[in-house]
Amino acid sequence: MVRTATEIQNTIKKYIIQEFMYDQSGVELTLETPLIEEEIIDSMGIFRLIAFLEEEFSFTLKHEEVVMESFETIVAIAALVEARLS
Amino acid sequence: MAYLLSQLLKQSVQAHAERPALTDGKRELTYRALDELSNRFAQQLLQAGVTRGDRVGIYLKKSPEAVAAIFGVLKIGAAYVPLDSAAPLQRIAYIVENCRIKALVSTRPKITKFQNRSSEIENKPTPILVDDQQALAAVPSEPLPDPQSIENDLAYILYTSGSTGMPKGVMISHRASLTFVDWAFDTFAVQPTDRISSHAPFHFDLSIFDIFVTMKAGGTLVLVPPTLSVFPRDLADFIASQKISIWYSVPSALIQMLLYGQLERHDFSRLRTVLFAGEVFPVKYLRQLMSRFPHIGYHNLYGPTETNVCTWHTVSPLAPDRSQPISIGKACANSEILVFNEQNELVASGETGELCVRGPGLMSGYWGLPERTAESLTHCRIHDLESEVIYHTGDLVRQEDDGNYTYLGRRDNQIKSRGYRIELGEIETVLYSHLAVEEAAVIPIPDEEIGNRIRAILVVRDGEQLTHSALDVFCATHLPKYMMPHEVEFRDSLPKTSTGKVDKVQLSQESTS
Q1: 3-class SS at B237?
Q2: How far is residue A42's CA from residue B348's CA, in Å, rounded to a whole number?
């Protein structure tokens, strides 16, 4: 099944809200919210997120791909996923 | 000779006014600029009615302003209380109330969020906003009147995990802090040309070395953006590009870089000293790091927050077949190590006992907890001195033939995870406070990369329901992230010992087998 960019973004957004935002009621998560800067995802969360992406989208990330610029926002993460799926 | 932490900045301003005092990789402040900015914060605090002996919360992300605010607090003789900017608001509110914080240095968005959620607390600290440029510009940057502080006054309070379910405030005086700072400055020969990392958050005691040893030396403090700690490769890039010469962190940050940071691609030729503390550094990873960068000096620093640092060990090259953990070394200058058995008798070299510390580097006590303080700081007769204060660390050690001490474990339920000190009892107390929880046990699962993973095993009350996600939400509103259980298991009952207590030994064996 081919997923559209919007579907990928929504899947990631849903996961982040479920897993990382339970203490942030009232904070709106947008596709451009700076996830690391806002401390929504920290050094403990990043590896959980990577494990989720690898399982959900069936690929493996290399160490050199785990860099800040690929994880700054949902848009950035979705772009990383899309590049791997294409 | 400085007897107050604020004097370290004053002396460096006189000697190196135009040298860079700190940078976050984007902005740089000279010693003069840092001094003037801290004077402005001090003026604002004075206007808010803060005086010698008061407590001021630093509720900010790591930034040049946060460092300036710390010195602003110290300059007027108050004590700073660094707050974890990512901690649940309930925990922040508890600390604000607990030590009666009089002013809170923060940003407008953070203060608004805090005030919305802390209506139930009586204490209402005055906000000092670092993002209010107008208010800051309106106060003078000239030096402040001398608050007549003495070295026994409190410099800061660091809150650590408490076994009774609430964090406890470790009170550190100027004298205690400077005992460590002076030792570290001499021992590692810190120079004005050094660029020292600030990796640990300010509420963590490793930050004391970073901030105050740098200021004493007239060096440059390189604030590591917390966001970079999430990405080992970006962090390695930052160390190289910022030409950091002295690095200090928990071992897990170094292990993450070793495993995922592509260190072979980086030029670490400027890095001369690596200090680590907070947890045991697994020998196999330390050996890899040392063989990759043999030009660096590696030092293991040991000491709970209550003692600053009390022993240290310079690591020699590690043999390929060595698996025995590295030593915590010998006492730092001006600290004495004593090892007592359960009968409170000093033990001989080679015997196991509790590590206790004597010297001017000890804490003044736990804020508002005289009984807990009296258990940890006891009076005893040493060297024919009638009533000397010693601190009981709760750590079990043995002195080896070469005089170095070996860490053997804890006497209680305290663990380390990513270098953070965690009382398992605090997590259990939070879990028990959930109405649906009948029984709870929290056990550590040893982990080579982060020290320990935290596993919670729960029994839910009859008729109640509790899901993993509901429990996550509950924990996240009561515990800082580093104390959240990594794994949760629900059971119908917990195994018991013959005395009716939860059998944690059995639970640990089941979890690790």
Answers
A1: helix
A2: 45
**Nearest to B274, CA basis, from B311, B335, B315:** B315
Q: What pLDDT, in 10s, does the model give residues B445-490?
A: 999 888 899 999 999 999 999 998 889 888 988 898 889 999 999 9
What's residue A22's pLDDT?
Answer: 66
Counting the structural domains of chain A, the total is 1
**Does residue A23 sit at the B interface (CB-CB below 8 Å)?**
yes
User: How far off is chain A from B228, nearest CA to CA, in Å?
Assistant: 7
Specify the pairing of strand B20-23 against strand B220-223.
parallel
| Cα B228 to Cα B258: distance, rounded to the nearest angstrom | 15
Partner A contacted by B403 (CB < 8 A): no
Contacts of B226 in chain A (CB under 8 A): 39, 42
Domain that holds residue A52: 5-85
CA trace torsion A76, A81, A84, A85 (10° rounding): -140
Q: What is the DSSP string of B142-158?
A: SPPPP----TTSEEEEE
- Rounded CA separation B427/B84 (Å): 18
The span from the CA of B20 to the CA of B172, in Å, is 28
Q: Do B233 and A71 touch (CB under 8 A)?
A: no
Q: What percent of chain B has pLDDT over 70?
A: 100
Rg (C-alpha) for chain A, rounded Å, is 12
**Total number of residues shown for chain A:** 86
How wide is the angle at C-alpha A20 spanned by C-alphas A18 and A22, nearest 5°? Answer: 70
> Closest partner residue to A37 among B227, B259, B472, by Cβ?
B227
The residue of A41, A68, A77 whose CB has the most chain B CBs within 10 angstroms, and thus the best one to mutate to test that interface, is A68
What does the pLDDT read at residue A7? 92
Say which CATH number the domain at A60 has: 1.10.1200.10
- B383: confidence class by pLDDT, cuts 50, 70, 90: confident
Q: What is the pLDDT of residue B456?
A: 95
- For the record, the structure tokens of B260 come out as 């995922």
Residue B180 has a CB neighbour count (10 Å cut-off) of 27
Pairing state of beta strands B168-173 and B195-198? unpaired
Among chain B residues, CA nearest to A45: B230
Q: What is the dihedral of CA A48, A54, A56, A59, to 10 degrees?
A: 170
Q: Are A66 and B260 in contact (CB under 8 A)?
A: yes
Model confidence at B382: pLDDT above 90: no
User: Taking CA B181 as the corner, what is the angle to CA B180 and CA B186, rounded to the nearest 5 degrees?
Assistant: 100
How crowded is the C-beta side of A11, counted as CA atoms within 13 Å? Answer: 18
Q: How far is it, in rounded angstroms, from Cα B6 to Cα B70?
A: 9
* Residue of chain B whose Cα is closest to the Cα of A67: B231
User: Residues near B145 by Cβ (< 8 Å), separated by ≥ 6?
Assistant: none
**Three-state SS for B61?**
coil
The 10 Å Cβ neighbour count of residue A31 is 15
Model confidence over A38-78: pLDDT tens digits?
Answer: 888 887 788 889 989 999 999 998 888 889 999 999 999 99
What is the end-to-end Cα distance of chain B in Å, rounded? 56
Return phi, psi of residue B115, to 5°: -65, -35
